């Protein structure tokens, strides 16, 4: 019974496929909500768990996404990610919703064709903050698996930041988690 409960909790951390090309994640995080919001929209804080870069605080504003994974993990990356890890990689987009401290959404340009859409929604859940992340327009199963495993790991790093914990592994878990998301896609068709 205990093993089933632990597996159910672990399964809950996985993203859920909403429709073809869309994945949704839900997390309960330590608040307050304004603190979680700051980790989504402030480049220096966002850089500790996902990517840095400025975000114009308005719908229609410009968004820079600067990825440098050496800032979020001390683990050695695979060769395919070495340049991004060591030198960084800049992409960006447009803010499509900016409703502090509840909704932040953007169109992500440069991650693949077509551009994709990301939405974060925050709400109070007792003494916690419910974060719901939806990523849409992921047109291939490979893109879906890469993005899903990436968000899974990045959201874990966000939780670590909010809890003041040592960040968990990123590269050490990435390939196995990507394979798990590939397998989960087979299960849903």
Automatic annotation (TrEMBL):
Residues 32-159 form the Activator of Hsp90 ATPase homologue 1/2-like C-terminal domain. It holds the Pfam family AHSA1. InterPro entries: ASHA1/2-like_C, START-like_dom_sf. SUPFAM superfamilies: Bet v1-like. It comes from the Bacteria. Gene3D superfamilies: 3.30.530.20. Belongs to the AHA1 family. This is Activator of Hsp90 ATPase homologue 1/2-like C-terminal domain-containing protein. It comes from Bosea vaviloviae.
């Amino acid at each position: 019974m205990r093993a089933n409960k632990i597996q159910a909790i672990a399964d809950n951390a996985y993203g859920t496929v909403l429709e073809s090309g869309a994945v949704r994640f839900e997390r309960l995080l330590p608040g307050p909500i304004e603190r979680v919001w700051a980790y989504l929209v402030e480049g220096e804080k966002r850089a500790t768990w996902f990517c840095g870069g400025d975000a114009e605080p308005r719908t229609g504003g410009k968004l820079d996404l600067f990825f440098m994974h050496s800032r979020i993990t001390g683990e050695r990356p695979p060769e395919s990610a070495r340049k991004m890890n060591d030198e960084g990689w800049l992409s960006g987009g447009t803010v499509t919703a900016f409703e502090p401290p509840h909704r932040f959404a953007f169109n992500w340009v440069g991650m693949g064709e077509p551009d994709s859409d990301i939405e974060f929604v925050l709400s109070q859940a007792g003494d916690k903050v419910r974060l719901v992340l939806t990523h849409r327009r992921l047109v291939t199963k490979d893109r879906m698996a890469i993005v899903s495993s990436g968000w899974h790991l990045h959201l874990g790093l966000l939780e670590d930041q909010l809890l003041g914990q040592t960040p968990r592994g990123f590269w050490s878990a990435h390939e196995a988690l990507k394979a798990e998301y590939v397998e989960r896609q087979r299960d849903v068709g």
